[in-house]
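Subject: Nidogen 1 structure
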Amino acid sequence: MFLWSFCSVELLLRHEPKLFGASVSDRVETLRLHFMVTVDGINTNGFVAVVEPPGEREYLGKMPAGFRMIAALLGDLDNSDGRGKVFFRQESSPDVLRRAHEHIKKAFPRDDSVEPPSVLIITWANMAAQGTSGRGDGLDAKRNTFQLVLASTDLSSYAILLYPRGGLQFLSTSVDGESKLLEAGFNEGLVKGWFRTTQGTYFRITTDEETSIKELTEKTNSGQRGVWVYEIGTSWLFAGITPGMVSSLPEEEKTATRYPISEPPQPRYTVPELTEPRYSPVQPSYPDSVQPRYTNPDPVQPVPPYSQPQHPQIVVVDEDEDLNVNVFAYNLETCAHNRHKCSAFADCRDYSNGYCCHCRPGFYGNGKDCVAEGKPQRMNGKVNGRVFVGNSPSPIELSNNDLHSYVVANDGRAYVAISNIPNSVGPSLQPLSSLGGVIGWAFALEQPGYQNGFSLIGGVFSRQAEVIFQPGNERLSIKQEFKGIDEHDHLVVSTELDGRLPAIPLGSSVQINPYKEIYQYDRNLITSSSNRDYTITSPDGTVQTRSYQWRQTITFQSCPHNEATGVAPSTQQLSVDQIFVMFDADNHLIRYAMSNKIGSVHSILPEQNPCFTGRHGCDINAMCRPGEGLQFTCECAAGFTGDGRYYIDECRENPRVCGSNAVCTNLPGTFRCECLNGFVFASDGRTCIEENRPVDHCQRGSHDCDAPERALCSYTGGSAYVCSCLPGYEGDGRVCRDIDECQQDRCHRDAFCSNTQGSYTCQCRPGFNGDGFQCKREKTQCERQRESAQASGSGSGFFSFFRPRPAVGQYVPQCDEHGAYEPTQCHASIGQCWCVDANGQEIPNTRTGSGNTPLCESVVTPPPVGPTPRPDVHPVTPGTHLLFAQSGKIEHVPLDGYKMKKEEAKPLLHIPDRVVIAVAYDCVEKMVYWTDITGPAISKASLSGGDIIPVVTKELQSPEGIAIDHVSRLLFWTDSMRDTIEVSKLDGSQRRVLFDTDLVNPRPIVTNPAYGRLFWADWNRDGPKIEMSNMDGTERTVLVKDDLGLPNGLTFDPDNQQLCWADAGTRKVECMDPHRQLRRQIVDGIQYPFSLVSFGKNLYYTDWRREAVVAVDRLSEKEMEEFLPQKRSRLYGITTTPSQCPQGMTGSSINVTCPHLSLLSVILRST
């Protein structure tokens, strides 16, 4: 149809189904626009359709297609990872309309064009080639951004295509396994005639040559590089496309793209040229019956090469609140769109022309790659190439030989090893210490005012070196590509060797003399050269001195926007000494080692401060900080603390550091993220996204639904599935909890309810009959006697069908509403009453005559009345249980002897929004005490139900340990923020501080009531210890201080008088007799214990890393079993609930002559 100006048109944005095939419907968003040309669909594959387009199989790689379209950059594009976006909007702001008019006027200077009343702007931003997103091989980082602007005037319509001056990052996409070049142009589609349908005009902007796609960003038809303008007429037929007429560039733009006026000195050897990756052009195919008609624009003039990267030509649009689409102000070169390109240890800053990345304090690099100051650095890579040795006509082939390097950054010492080196070439490689020594330059020890290579350019650069050996003039070329820091925190490099080496006999040693090398710096280019002498000592003792010339060029991409940032001096000198080289013929290894310093080229007095000489003695994971004169300090690198013996566990400190669908593995000074099955890394190398390939996770078993006995996994197509809990369980399907049907009154009111996993049972109470859902009370003795008396007087005739009646004059007992005998019984026929007991027996001397009724008391005891269980407190059955804290709840696990009855584990107490740390149990009153650090508070509740009772709620900061003295009825606790140990009665009254000095991080605390002793541990990293005192605070003594790390858990076994502890630093469980101080190890190699409790021969501890309760046999010194709760998270305090108190003194047998008890009671009474 032909729409004259400002007709209402409906615009559709369509997203091709990429991830889940045809099972996912197209998502359509609508927007009302006014435009001269009908636009029916904006497609993520880089085109705008005039009619609703068919499936992508009908046009990708098969142009011209059978429908009308404008192809801005057609290909199989992908935006499924969330980085790629398609923005569109109608714009009528004066600034945008003016800029669009300027583009049209420049392209058609002879036409009297007028400013359009509105434009439609479509932006394809950060689009990836389909199938490359998340692969991690570098292709996923290649993104294309381009725009199409449609402008209408009263006389005609125009299409303005804008491409980034920095170049397109990929030129083809894979279609059905074949590489297909991207395309741009105007396609008329099929044209229906009177007798047949023919293929209409396909006006191609690009051709079947790869260069034509590159030229989209390098040339123009509108006088501005990367901007192409076409008049598409007043008709939707695309039959008369007119390209812009100005293919030349203005002089100022040409000048701006030439070489800088002040050129750096050019080396006299070949400089490697960085080129775009090449793809094979593919000739498109068409149906036999349809012959396309092509028209190509006139050829344009080339522009000078090596132009500096410029910003993409983008028409910026502001957000419009009235449009119900995802449209916002767009500018590629801002931190908002590029923050992910910066290192995780860098900040992104916006400048007037773009953004730059800057390493944070404590890190150094170029912002794209940042490493911690002082931390050792590793480099891994492969070595390939062909090397001739001596006069040999046959080369030695090197294929993927492993290269590993390690540098101690705080003294500049670098180590390099290359494996699988044949003996025929290994000895001759010894002089080439710089083969891996580039890492020495990159991480050289910096002198004041100078910077090493990594500080300046980061870890992405190219290096080409040429070596000329004397006197034989052998030449060797070395090419290295450094690809940045990988997910393992290693610098990645690929090396290629090509050329000839002078022969060195097997068994010879090589000594390389110290040398200096001058580096010359310019933007994006570094050059250096040096002469190096080396000495060869042959196996027969012959000594030869040789030399070679070394020249190298390093190219890189710096951030051009931050002009204020100081650059390195134009020249710096690398000093290399303590050089060691060796070929290990037995293991086929070539090894290099050297010390590197970067500083001034001038002869000045060398720095004497140990930080600049490297002789400081700091740990290899520490940074040396210079002070006055020869003073210095050692500062641990980021990720390390203390003296380097203990490292920060980033996975534990920040559980979300790897995001969802990933597993975090802690490493010394860093961490590693690994994706779960079915997920792959996104472009940031850390976030895990779902694989594009459809996977039935339910059938494979790679789903994250709960166990099959609790949950059902239902496949929903593609790679999607749904988790749902089975009947009898509740939750989201990934975590299913047993429903306690007994809390829902499923059984009859006169029945017992027993909850089971996924179900429940009902059983009528004694005295009732039924199936538990319906229960009827059994007849009592009174009711049976009454029925018997009534039945004996009932006849057998017609009236016997009605209610039984007793015989005249027969005594019938009276029963109350519960079926019990009324305390007063009367016999109306004889006119007497008397009292009876509970069995209906007459009580002597209570019978009275007619008209008198005896005063009889009820002998039935009323049922006891008490508090009913709270819905969040579940009474436990008699016997010993383990109680442990897990965030906002306390769970219990019954013990069968020493074995945990895991299937009967269930929550005892739910305390939402609280973090419970320590738990303790009072065996006298059957009460559970606990601390929570969110209140903070100390509280208690009964095992049999009832309300939560606050005990201590004031003057607390972080109560982390709690202990009960069941004999003297006292409560002890530690506060790691107040650094105190305190005591009160069990109700929180008569509180006092026992200790508030010489405490740093007190946590676990236990009592020995039989001897009136108190034990606690302080996990101060600088001086961990376990202490002991009397309960009144006297005789404080350090019990253990040697060979401790992080003593988190502490318990006392009253039967064997053994004090045991679990140490997360030494990863051991140990016990000792505190009286004789005999210490022994129970187990070692545990992971991260938190709390510990003793029961009989077993020790039970909670482990943060395993998220489990672990049982250890103290006698056999072996781990016996573990319990993993349904909900996996950190476990905290643990205790037991013995069915009776430990043997010894109880609350009724306190002897006030015991000094520690009597003194403590006096102190408490006096406070």
